[in-house]
Amino acid sequence: MNESGSPPADLTEALRHEPNEPGADHRLPTRTDASALEYPWAHPPAIGEVVEIAHGIGWLRMPLPWGLDHINLYLLPDGAEGEFALVDTGIRSKETKAAWRRLVGTGGTRSKDGRIHLTRLLLTHHHPDHLGLAGWFADRYGLKVHASRVCWLYARTLWFDKAPEVPAEVLEFFHRAGFSPEALERLRAAGWGRYREGVERLPIGVHRIDPTEPLKIGGALWWAIETAGHAPGHLSFFDPKRRLLVSGDQVLPEISSNVSVYPSEPFGNPLAEWLEGLARLRALPADTLVLPAHNRPFRGLHPRLDQLIGKHVERLGGVAEMCREQPRAAVEIFPALYRRRVAGMEYMMATGEALAHLHFLEAEGVLAREPDATGAHRFVWRARYQAQEVVERLAKITRGQEETAPWTSIR
């Protein structure tokens, strides 16, 4: 989606080939031309260390207990010397709390030992690594929490959604996706309602972020951009004057966001939302400095967005081809998305991603679902997948954003 309004050349070239080969593993780095991205900071900060980057913004990392072992958090100057608004918090854990206690002072300015003062908390979305300590910050430091309405309602719903047994509709959801009786039994044994394990009890109230109005943070105006798909109500934050984007999990330089269908919205189409969010971000200036939630800050937003869009457009073609060969349940299309065997807890995440691709193609009229004799939903090929039409539709969204976004007059 270039300035002329036509699809980018690299996407057009990717679509010349029949996309029926096994897909790139979504858990591995997306194929990226190293020369397309620039990393101004070669090394990330150590856990609990703050590195000052562009315009006095602080970059720090907190640990995560997963294969992806860190999250990036950002401090936006907000008032007097040493005062900052914090974007996201890290997961609820003793290690993360200890790191924050070392960093945060209680005074209004930077204290003699270099600790910082926080003015408020901004949230990109509801996942535990992003708001796990929102309640802790509210209680301990009196911070006001700012988030989208959808983010907050999802978080509070999930926090209170704990039951002694896995709900029947959840088991039915994964049964429809093609889980075997053995896999369903393992799911049943795992229990239900573990969200609160990584999330401190949340305050009742929130300051709702309105994407139609700018957030004044210090002397800068930041605009929230709705970029759902990875998470309902996900926000990215853009400063048009300084060309800075805090992207959350929407766009990452080395990995692709997880985009999944969940039992909470069992027939949703999150991949369409995520691709549309990428298309909106492509309206931002090419030299925007991206501050992502994982990996390192980078420049090269447009080529990275083209890579992500191109990858998923191509993989959708691979999914369509598998269903053209014969009707498939969600767990049967993993070869179109992953190069490695999917096992363990990754199996559930992979199922959600598979459903996201199937639901996208269903909405396009390419596939239709048909329950089999066991009640599993198999997706049947109905029409040719028109990849170019998808790309052109996304390009139209980009052009519309370029014309109507509220910050265009500021740029």
| CATH architecture call | 4-Layer Sandwich
Task: Provide the low-confidence segments as ranges.
Answer: 1-31, 107-112
Residue share in helix: 25-40%
Overall geometry comes to globular
* CATH homology superfamily: Ribonuclease Z/Hydroxyacylglutathione hydrolase-like
CATH topology: Metallo-beta-lactamase, Chain A
Give a count of the beta strands, DSSP E runs of length 2 or more. Answer: 15
Taking strands numbered 1, 2, ... along the chain, how are they ordered across the largest sheet?
1-2-3-4-5-6-7
Tally of individual domains: 1
N-C termini distance:
20 Å
Number of helices: 11
Round the Cα radius of gyration to an integer and report it: 22 Å
- The CATH first-level class comes to Alpha Beta
